Amino acid sequence: MAILEKTVNGKTLRFLNTEAFDRNDWAALSTSGSTERNLCLSLSDLDKLPCFSCPEALLLTGGSLGPSGFAPLYGAKGLKTLVLDYEETDSDEDGIHLDCLPALHYVLSRSNLNLYHLSEANGPIVEVRNFWRNGKAVKTTLAPGTELAKRRRFVFFSTEGEGAAAVGIMEILNPIQTALDEMDKRYSSRLDSIAIIPFCVSDPTAPERRYVSLKKRYADLRLRIDWEAFRTATPERRQQMCRENVRACAAYIAKKDASFLLREFLADIDTAIKE
């Protein structure tokens, strides 16, 4: 059996790693079942959770939810520990309702982006390992060394880039982030958080991301900046490329969110760049 070890709440837990299972393994489980208590399942295999009769700790990894959504999870009434080891999914599924898991007392989240999948609850403690942006307000116990943002950012800038391209993009975006933080404006009544993350890698086939969810009240835009063109561009042209990327992201958000104040946002971006 494949075993995965993970430190949870100060203890090392050993999880049966079902991601190593093949079709025959699942067929045998569907017939005989299993009493294994600590499990690692992908979101794609969550429908198979009922094959295990009494799970107490569940480690969920990435993937696409099956047709049953989170229903199999809610059937695990004895579940005490839940580990969310993925950033987030592109699904608009309802959040994980913690009150449907009466025995749950501890949740470990790889990223606060997972908190978009959690309803507010007073029961279990939620530990956030990597706090990138604020999600819904839940009771949190921070891992050592983790720092909460001093205030909630409505617009968040970062980059997915390679080497010097990543450094160059952040040198342009950081002053914009500082300026918008000082303005402290909300540009939408239907979104709580907007991430604009220029995508600049050497692989021309790597996919962009255009994600706006009014249900989750969150937007994540990762549009491409041509890596070779940026690498060889002058400082002035690099700034222009970043501005065009941000404007394209904003235009896409405006198509999905009628409340988005596109003109005001773009004017503030132009002001920040001039400063």
Outline the structure in words.
The chain has 275 residues and is α/β, with parallel strands linked by helices. The chain folds into 2 domains: 140 residues; 120 residues, no CATH class. The chain is built from 6 helices and 14 strands. An 8-stranded mixed beta sheet has the order 1-2-3-4-5-6-7-8, with no helix packed on it. A 4-stranded mixed beta sheet has the order 9-11-14-13. Helix 3 crosses helix 6 and helix 5 runs antiparallel to helix 6. About 7% of the residues have low confidence.
Explain briefly what this protein structure is.
By secondary structure, the chain is an alpha/beta fold. The protein is 27% helix and 23% strand. Helix 2 (71-74) links the parallel strand 4 and strand 5 (81-84).
CA distance, first residue to last residue:
59 Å
- Overall pLDDT: 80
What is the chain-wise order of helices and strands?
EEHEEHEEEEEEHEEEEHHH
Give the total of domains.
2
Q: Quick one: biggest sheet?
A: 8 strands, mixed
Portion of residues in beta strands equals 15-25%
How many β strands by DSSP?
14
Structural class: alpha/beta
SS summary, helix count: 6
Spatial ordering of strands, largest sheet = 1-2-3-4-5-6-7-8
**Overall 3D geometry?**
elongated
For this structure, the quaternary state is: single chain
Rg, Cα atoms, Å: 21 Å
